[in-house]
Specification:
Distance between the termini: 27 Å
Strand order of the largest sheet: 2-1-4-5-6-7
Strand content: 15-25%
Amino acid sequence: MIDQIRVRNLALIEEALLTLGAGLTVVTGETGAGKTALLSAIRLLLGSRANADSVREGAEGLVVEGRFLGLPGSCEEGDPDPDDESVVRRTVSAEGRSRTTVNGDMVTLKQLGAIMERSADICGQHDQQKLLRPAEHRQLLDDWASDQLQEPLGAYREAFGKARAAARELDRVRQMKETSSAQLEEARFILRRIDEVNPLPGEYQELLSDLARGEHAETLSCSVREAASALSGEGGALDGLNAAAAALESAARFDPDLLPYAQSLREATYVVEDVARDARSYAEDIDFDPQVLLDQQERAAQLQGLIRAYGPRMEDVLEAREQAADLVSLVDDSEQREAAALRAVEAAEQRLEQTAEELHQARERAAEEFAALVSSQMQRLEMGTASVECAVELLDRSRWTAEGPSGVELLFRPGAGMQSRPLARIASGGEISRVMLAVHVVMGNRDQVDTLVFDEVDAGVGGATALALADVLADLSQTHQVLVVTHLPQVAVKADQHYVVRKEEGRGIPRTILENVQDEDRVVEIARMLAGDATKGSLAHARELLGEEAASLV
């Protein structure tokens, strides 16, 4: 959600601060006052490209800063905390050099776009990319019908993954089946050479330990026996410890503080006795056999030869043997292996077709309901008998993806009895804006966008349509933060916050001023929107409209 936007030196704006809250915020003002510059600032924060032409005349550069709460793309793990603050900053110099940072870290425009994708969406006659791109329509439908589609979509994705794995295995079997005779002979040679030695897992490390003891058996025996004698032989460490302990015990009769030292020495004698006993046992167990040592050295040489050829580790040797055996087995049993892989593919495809049909039917049911709800909102917007159709087409198998087997496209029908056509081809800019508004109302909080900005949604609208549009925008503000640039007083009176854009002239370069109007100032602005000027009659009418709106909220 947008908390604040600060703009400096953008077009006619010298400096402006826009503070947004939840609900509906409107921006009004006369044509040419600078509302477009404010929208340009928001576009910059969402990742649009900037150029030097946007810099205010005479300024060194422009700066646009936005503070966002719970920015989705700024959270690396899990859902964002709605109280977390993030600051996005765009600067553009008068020479056209641009810089973008998020929380002080430099980012590219592509990265900024990815971060801001779920934060805000500008819905203007020239900003309906999502609605005009059929590739985005499936995601719209899936987001809206997530509860209905969760189970069939999950089953389809699991089946799709297994079908891909089965196809990869069949390709591998067929590729290995076509192995050249030279590769096959090499695999047979590797298999034969390794099997002649027959290395076992863990054998080489154990053998190295045995060799170290066998090759130095005499040194080990002498050293360990010498250690045992030094510990427990006549005059050894054990005798000294016992003598020292006895002396301290005798002295402790006169000074009890010496007794703990004597006890510590007695405990040390137990450790020394254990070490001496184990050392003697170790020395006695050393049984040097020259023939055993020779056999171990020959075995180590065989294993080291394999490591030099297929290493550098014994694990690599065993893996080379497994790969060679697999290739030889595959070629020798190629027909059977290919037949088994083909059966696996057929079974996986059969399961995939079943889940694809279930998902396709679920999407068709959801699409019909979704289109009916959007069309109902369009009728609220006084679009006559115009409606939308959500067409779901089962694609060729070659075009299936992990997202499903269906293509989804929103079609627009200008009136009852008329043919539905792709929305981008036949709907006017105003119609597209209102269709997008209807879609967002139906999506509720399932469209994964926090803030919606509407520009020119009221183009060519008046009378009953204006009242309906105002009601729909008010409904939408219950699930989103909504910002609307409008010329309609019917919309303006619905706002939770009201900003007015004015152009100030008479002191050099004109400048745009953004003001948050309340109380009587707001009455004056509504009156201007009603009659072009704040006359006695228009002021009375403005108070009436605002009073009615306030009463409806009680």
